[in-house]
Sequence to fold (666 residues):
Amino acid sequence: MADKMYHMADEIRSEMERIPNCTVIFYSKNNRYELVMITDRFLEALQLQRETFEEYFFNNLNVFFHPDDRISLESKLYEMLRAPGTLYPFRMRLNVNGEYRWFRGNMEAREADDGGKLIYVTTMDITEDHNRHARDKVRDILLAKVLDTTQTCMFWKDTERRFVGVNQAFLDFYGFPSEDVLIGKTDEDMGWHDDPEPFRKDEERVLKGASVRLARGTCRVHGENRDIFATKAPAYDGDTIIGLVGTFLDATETLSQQRKIEELSKELARSLEKEKQLNADMGRFMSRLSHELRTPMNAVIGLSALGLEQETLEGAKNYLENIRISGRYLLSIINEVLELNKAEAGDVKLNPVESNLKSLFREMHAIIDPLALKKGISVVMDEKGILYEDMCFDIVRLKQILINLLNNAVKFTERGGHINLSVGQELLEGNIRNTFTITDDGCGISESFLPSIFVPFAQENRNPSKYGSGTGLGLTITRTLIQMMGGDIRVESKEGEGTAFYVTVDFPACCPVSPAVEKERREPKTYDLIRGMRVLLAEDNVINQKVACGILGRVDICVDVADNGEAAADMFQNSPEGCYGAILMDIHMPVMNGLMATRKIRAMDRDDAKTVPIIAMSADVFDESIIKARECGMTGYITKPLDMEALYDELETQIKIFKDLTDIKE
Fold:
């Protein structure tokens, strides 16, 4: 019927077949539809035969159209029939040989002469384009997801260096709510670089085809400069550069850690170098220590040999006294070495006491004369300039200063040479200014070495077989001690003509003393409080036993000797209560040491075990050892070699405390 009503010439049909789109025409009236015409191209797209299309199409509408598209299609069809002449675009899926494929096209209704409607439909298979678009959409979604979840800050710019887009990490880094804040702007517009010039030049090179990898820079974020590493590359459309793509990482913490690691590495290197230096210094120190100890030791040995040649006690007394003086000086050096760690920590303190300068000169004679005599050198210590004998000064440190300078003079003076020590004094506002001058006619010091003479370990190149070796610490230590006294030292010398050292120090005149102290100075101590008492001596060294017994015997103290701590504890346990007025306890002994023996005695069930004075005797003068002695129950601590007066004074002090405790108990 439709073909009769709407006959189309073959040439018209032929022309319609040339249209690239698929075309189909329907006739509609009273809700009935008939096929008017369909092109071969549409039939090919649907993979159907012309003879069977109409029957298949109208009998299988539910299968021919995708179920999800039918409602939309029916709605469009209804609107189209009510508005003839209006073009309606559509996208739908049609069943092609059991597979739904995507078609896109337009449909339009026109009025027929009999009141019906002609429906013109043109369409084309867009399945491949649709699938490609779907893939592109998925790819775009995934790409956007990747860009917004990566921690690397990313951005895109056009050829004018204006921002086109950024990822979420970029927005989070700067704290921007959206990319609208910076789209179309440059780095200079944003003002986040103190110096934008390097960034501009980098991007201009990139827009000419170069790439920038991990360029280091800084940017200001929330008022704080942050370190970044940026990478940028050109973006191409074919062979044309259309912009650039960049990424950057916040490296502030990483670089901070790197700087810390580098600083720690440098500190470690410095520590290792310092350790090497300390090891080298220790070697020099031991050599220096040997040098310091040999001076008084040589005096002791030399005086001992001379004393043994004397046939009478009176003849030997003078040598014995000088040996005692040298021994005291040797002890002072040992104590100084043991307290070297305190000096390095700034804990060494001067101990100024009332002292006599002429007595100091006599003591120095006893130390220097044997050395000078051995080399055939004359030493003159001129006392004529001493107008004020008694002053307050640290006699040990001053002696160390002058002995070191005199010893150097002897060392660098040839046989037959001369050394002179003199002193000049003047009164300045209650203080006495002392200028000690030590001169020699020895080898002298070269002009080039003079500026380095007080530098630690500095030594002029001298023949060691002729002048001996040294550490170069002597003059450094000497100047340090002088500066601690508030004084000064200077030197004048010419090579081959001798040397002169000038030491200037101010000491206060001695303060007036009380009549009681003055009387004590004039009258020798009698030590009546300890005379005749009995003590227990715990000492394993036989020589030390004899020395201690000899010293104690001078004030009529009776001594019972134990060879070790265990024997001492047993002797005290088996003695009558109150038998011993004091116990002298060596710390380091075999079988049982002094600390353990003291604890054992203090734990005994007898009254005097808690109160009897127990005095430690040890060559160990470190604070840690003294603290341990106190903790175990010892009441006093004296150092070896024993000083007679120090031992007597300590015993008297402890006996007074012991008596006070006894009186309180009673």
In short: Residues 539 and 563 are 5 Å apart (CA to CA). Confidence is low (pLDDT under 50) at residues 1-7. Residues 252-308 form the longest helix (57 residues).
